């Protein structure tokens, strides 16, 4: 009997601490970010090109176990990386031109993305009372033009 109670408590705990962001919500977060920072790009079509799953802990893997989503914007007009869980800021990174090709990621970017996924997964597993990303400590930075452009 004790084993069943312990098992039930563990299963409930894994659900209670999960605050995943759905694909639809991630896309809405990306659009809201673009509207705030670049109104011209906010009307572009966003296409999901990659989502990074992480290994489930304490339950079967579901579509909710996503560290981040990557959306291409329009035709070669950039991409945006959004969090798959509310423990991280909504937008992790974005690029104003080009596109994201999941089959051709530079080693340094792959390493950074893997590190983001590990951190989000670790944070998502922590039993915290208020584990959402605190936007009060988020610093809004002034936009800086590129120092160099390549063609």
Explain the overall architecture.
The longest helix has 18 residues. The protein is an alpha+beta fold. It starts with a helix and ends in a 27-residue tail after the last helix. It contains 3 helices and 4 strands; from the N terminus they run H-H-E-E-E-E-H. A 4-stranded antiparallel beta sheet has the order 1-2-3-4. Helices cover 32% and strands 17% of the residues.
Question: Which features does this protein show?
Answer:
4 strands, alpha+beta, disordered N terminus, 151 residues
Topology:
Elements: H1 2-16, H2 23-37, E1 46-53, E2 66-73, E3 79-83, E4 91-95, H3 107-124
Antiparallel strand pairs: 1-2, 2-3, 3-4
* Tally of DSSP β-strands: 4
Query: Which stretches are low in confidence, meaning pLDDT under 50 for 5 or more residues running?
Result: 1-16
Strand order of the largest sheet: 1-2-3-4
Largest sheet: 4 strands, antiparallel
How far apart lie the N and C ends? 67 Å
Q: What is the C-alpha radius of gyration, as a whole number of Å? A: 18 Å
The 3D shape can be described as globular
Beta-strand residue percentage: 15-25%
Q: What series of H and E elements makes up the topology?
A: HHEEEEH
Work out the helix count. 3
Instruction: Kindly report the average pLDDT value.
Output: 78
* Helix proportion: 25-40%
Which class of secondary structure composition applies to the elements? alpha+beta
